[in-house]
Amino acid sequence: MDPILERYQALENKVAQYTPNLNTQKLFDAFTYADTEHHGQLRKSGEPYIIHPLAVADIVADLGLDMDSVVAALLHDCIEDTDATHEEIARRFGEPVAELVEGVTKLTRVQYVTKEEEQMENLRKMLMAMAHDIRVILIKICDRLHNMRTMEYQSPKKQREKSLETMEIYAPLAHRLGMQKLKWELEDLSLRYLDPVGYKEIEDEMAKRSAAHEEFLASIQMRIQQRLEQEGIRCKVYGRVKHTYSIYRKMFTQNKTLDEIFDLYAFRVIVDDISECYNVLGCIHDMFKPVLGRFKDYIGTPKPNMYQSLHTTVIGREGIPFEVQIRTWEMHQTAEYGIAAHWKYKQGMANQKLGTEQEFEWVRKLLESQQDTDAEEFVRTLKVDMFADEVFVFTPNGDVKSLPAGATPIDFAYSIHSAVGNSMVGARVNGRMVPYETQLKNGDIVEVLTSKTAKGPSRDWLKLAKSNEARNKIRQWFKRERREENIATGRAAFEAELKHAGIPLAAITGEEVLPHILHKVRFGTLDELYASIGYGGTTAAKTVVRIRDELLRLGRLQAEKAAAAARTTAESVIVPGSSAQTPAKPMPKHSDSGIIVEGMGNCLVKFAKCCSPVPGDPVIGFITRGYGVSVHRQDCPNAAPERRKPEEADRWVKVSWVESSLPNYKTTVELSAKDRDNLTLDIATALSSAKVKVTALAVRAMADGHAIMTIELEVKDRNELASVINRLNNIQGVYHVARASGK
Ligand code: MN
What we know:
Structural class: alpha+beta
Number of helices: 30
Mean pLDDT: 80
Distance between the termini: 120 Å
Largest sheet: 6 strands, mixed
Number of strands: 21
Shape: elongated
Oligomer: single chain
Radius of gyration: 42 Å
Bound molecules: manganese (II) ion
Helix content: 40-55%
């Protein structure tokens, strides 16, 4: 029999074993079609090309994948390497097969350049996201596995490239999909070409000791098995030597020789339930000496990928340390097959214990039941969840860019550099010119066309850009490039705001004042300030508030000087030293006072606590010693003309309210009422419906059944205060409301 036909027959038999009612004709047709299409092509080994698709299909069948996957594996290189088309394959073998082949072809076309780890992770994610069907990834991994197995025929350059790609992309993907065995083989094969000397050293050493290893494994395995049986624990014990790459990595990272490597051997004890795991651990620690600090309870604290097991390292009589992993069958599924096993258990297969022949059954089950919603949902989350909000595209030289889903060439351009975005005049995706609003897809190769004479971004781009990065950079551009325009609009907004606040422009442009003002708002020049307001970097309102603060500060300094001058005069007249003691306390905090002090410019203002004036009240100011101007109501007893000391006469100054003053004023109201249930509640309700802010409220119950309440509140002006008092007066039982009088 023809050796190739023989190989085909073996494949058919393998698939038939796990596929009831196998359509052998379809399988055979696929084989014949691929054989014909690849006719005349040779592998580097000199064999006919069809050997490769046959071998890949064989690995796919080892995984227990469905019929369509096996057929697609036979055809997987047809679109790429022969005249076959998607349509032709769809017509002959059905659309699902054509889509699988197309998917594998797309992954094959992804260009690979080794990059730093972050780029690799993007590339892995991109492959996952590109493969709309998880079977595409699985077939691609099988394809890569066969290519790695036959890598010896390739040039050293190709060997290195493919091995690096396998180590950085495909082994981690296999790991992510829980395909531990494939992962190990991929790693070992790659290592063989990436560090041939190191690889051979380990292989040779291990071969030398192989008999001893086998003996050791068998003896330990038997001892554990016997002991656990005595204890009445049903279990299965496996022993193995760790794979070459994991030994290599340990030697490399720990800088040790093979003899110094701690765990060369690993044993696995698989039991029925969790409590038995801990019983087994007890027995193991009783039989062998545990190595301190090596016990890990991943049952109590599972790894992020759901891995659960107890790990311990022990030393036997032989003085050889080995690792023991203890887990239930369910945990074993998860450990071997990843997240998919978890799903499978949820599907009610918990009672099955998998032997080796069933090891990859989860994939088949997974694929078979893709029709039912749960499985569909699962497959969707497995593949897409992690990357649903990202899209991965290539630069022309093979860098992978991760952009938010829905990103356009504009996002791409700005992700490279703002200069690229600003000089963009067009974009190509996969070699074709596209409009700017085109949404990029995974695996697209995006190229930005730039020109030195580009006009820069348009405002529309802000809508087309999906990423904040691009939008910010576009705004930045407008900030710089439209300076004249920004200055004009910014200046207009600023001057309007200044006017609103009652500050004449001349008040800040004076030679002595302006540098302080600019320093306060942190701009070098007024134009810079205007430009910033113009493009929206800051607002006119915010700026003016800060400017007013600064003017007040400057005014206060002036007031202090005036006060100091007054003090010197006063001290010489009154008892020397008596009033000069007032230590320089820190300035009380103030916001905009809303008060104009005549003849003083802007200066620090505080409102006298004795009478708490509010706007509209007739007021008068008193220049204090070091605290700016204190403002009293004119009817405040403390400000009564007869109580003003003659020697302080020049300290009493005229003050008036700024017309539109925004801030609120604190004042105090006293209320007397007949005490009753809910009085306080009614008062609080009245105050809150009047929308005034209450800062303090104190009630004193008097012996005669009356209550006196002191309410500290903030009001805009005299009118608002009057209306609040009116409301309070209308509350049942209240018989007197008045502003607190000066004491
Ligand atoms: Mn291939």
